[in-house]
Amino acid sequence: MSKSNNVYKDAFNRCLRLLDETQSLPSEPELGTLLGVSRTTVRSILSRMEETGLIAWNKRNKTVLRTPRPEDFFPEEETDSLAEIIERSFMRRLLAGGAEAGMQINELELAREIGVGTTSVREFLIRFSRFGLIEKRRNSHWVLKGFTRAFALELTEIREMFELRSAAAFAALPQDSAVWADLDRLEVEHRQLASDIATRFNEFSELDERLHRLIHRASHNRFIVDFYDVIAMIFHYHYQWNKAEERQRNEVAIQEHLAYIAALKSRDPAKVDTACRKHLKSARQTLLSSIPEGRQAQPADGTLSGTFARA
Amino acid sequence: MSKSNNVYKDAFNRCLRLLDETQSLPSEPELGTLLGVSRTTVRSILSRMEETGLIAWNKRNKTVLRTPRPEDFFPEEETDSLAEIIERSFMRRLLAGGAEAGMQINELELAREIGVGTTSVREFLIRFSRFGLIEKRRNSHWVLKGFTRAFALELTEIREMFELRSAAAFAALPQDSAVWADLDRLEVEHRQLASDIATRFNEFSELDERLHRLIHRASHNRFIVDFYDVIAMIFHYHYQWNKAEERQRNEVAIQEHLAYIAALKSRDPAKVDTACRKHLKSARQTLLSSIPEGRQAQPADGTLSGTFARA
DNA sequence: GTAATGTCTTTTATCGTGAAAAAACATTTT
DNA sequence: AAAATGTTTTTTCACGATAAAAGACATTAC
């Protein structure tokens, strides 16, 4: 097996959702742009849609024949890229416990357990190393540094430095900048979510990321913008892992965001600074409270995953 | 060819230099630690040394028979790791000109031109991407962002933020911390270099890196420490590229370093801040002055290297 | 009995290979 | 002639295979 066709399958599924809305599909290049894939992939999608009787396809004519049924879709798990599969699998092991700082990471074993080639695992580890959780020993294995309290403190220290600076830069942006419209839109979405908090509290993390990324972008500094990838990754898995009091936490965070947004709109540096600090402080608390003081919990079944071995 | 034995060759050369100093070599594990390689490699080295008549080897007895001759050494170019070869080759292309922002990077072509497999090039690009000079398009090629003025400004902005914080943390370190001895040692080396500047000015960049790394380590923050890799990489190639006024620049920098060291030793936050700012400001000037305003120069022979292609 | 050497096993680093996907080129349609 | 479709070429992605290097285990020496 050389390469999975997840790009095609994922784009196919997304294209199926498009069928609901129109009677005929646009041109091949247009579809390619829409789905973010090449024309080659678009044509594979169209071929299959024709075969399964979803559309009639003759050159420029792509007429929708019927609404897609559940069985037309490829299974969700077949649409993930290898990198996503490896990341999820790796993070599960990391957070599931038994993964103590100093343990060795075995590429070959990780690859075997996930059922992928070693090259993909190696490339994942290299990419992942920038998050500061693992480290490579020259011509040898990787070492796990652990998702510890120290890690969280180091991460938040940088985050606070970067976000205070970005927020200040944001507030100083000219009135006619497009960001103010983006901010208004985010404010509306925050208010909607706040009023619907009882049922939609789990939608907060996506909104959170969008607001912070918008603010960070005002720094116009690629290192600051890129660093948000580290934060986003950590918070993504942290949210999945720590569901305790999720609703209440998010409710508080939404209010802090609204205050933060108001401060930004005031364009008063002092107010921005205060609101930003307040929110970052509680974000840090949330993250820290989810990390046990000493070490990670042991796995439920009492066995150690083979991926991480004691040094 | 699956893997070059550069680890062995490099360790062999380093071991040869050890022969000058002693009549007999230490135990295998000891040698391994000394050279930073495994016993397997140590034994290969000893085997060859025995074969070429450099030593007599019988179990624990490793007697030196003769001083190594130039022809005993492996050629320098055979001791580089693939990663180093690829990095040098890539940076040469990048800095040699003709590499404008927005150009595409072709993995396959790069691999062919350097004469290595695509896997190694891919891994290099992934590792290199954290420097912020290239960016990956999803399921597609890499894009060159270019070694531009904007890049230098973004880099120095972060550097200044991090170093001011690290320097403050450094000055606050307890008197009995080991770093003060390290700092004293560096001060001595700076004074020695200053008095010998006429002949040894090119040794400054190594000293520069050591001082800044020592200071950054005081932050106790892995992201700050790791970020120095970006700075070190840029300055490394920048120094190789821009030799104009090198001696004078280094002379000035040494004096700034001495003032900076004195400020740190005074442990007065205000003095540290002033000295640090002053040095960072001139470092930024030096870097910026080497980057042409508009774009990189065109290659001398008028042809475009195939590695980078217009978008 | 500790620490070395000798031997065997496992892991890492790198390549060539082949399918998926992108990109380039050629042809047709409007 | 601009923009689509049809066709071919190139590049990316991922794998298995193999030599280098590390690591583990067994044996010997002090």
Protein architecture, described:
- Two copies of one chain form a homodimer.
- The first copy, chain A, has three domains: 6-77, Winged helix-like DNA-binding domain superfamily/Winged helix DNA-binding domain (Arc Repressor Mutant, subunit A), CATH 1.10.10.10; 82-147 and 294-309, Winged helix-like DNA-binding domain superfamily/Winged helix DNA-binding domain (Arc Repressor Mutant, subunit A, Orthogonal Bundle); 149-289, Up-down Bundle (Four Helix Bundle (Hemerythrin (Met), subunit A)).
- Chain A has 13 helices and six strands.
- The first copy, chain A, has helices at 6-19, 28-35, 39-51, 82-95, 107-114, 118-128, 149-171, 179-195, 197-200, 204-217, 222-241, 246-266, 269-289; strands at 55-58, 61-64, 104-105, 134-136, 142-144, 308-309.
- In chain A, the strands form two sheets. In chain A, strands 4-5-3-6 form a four-stranded antiparallel β-sheet. In chain A, strands 1-2 form a two-stranded antiparallel sheet.
- In chain A, α7 (149-171) crosses α11 (222-241).
- The radius of gyration of chain A is 23 Å and the shape is globular.
- Chains A and B meet through α6, α7 and α11 of A and α6, α7 and α11 of B.
- Chain B binds a DNA duplex (30 and 30 nucleotides) through residues 1-8, 27-29, 37-41, 43-44, 59-60, 81-82, 106-109, 116-120, 122-123, 139-141.
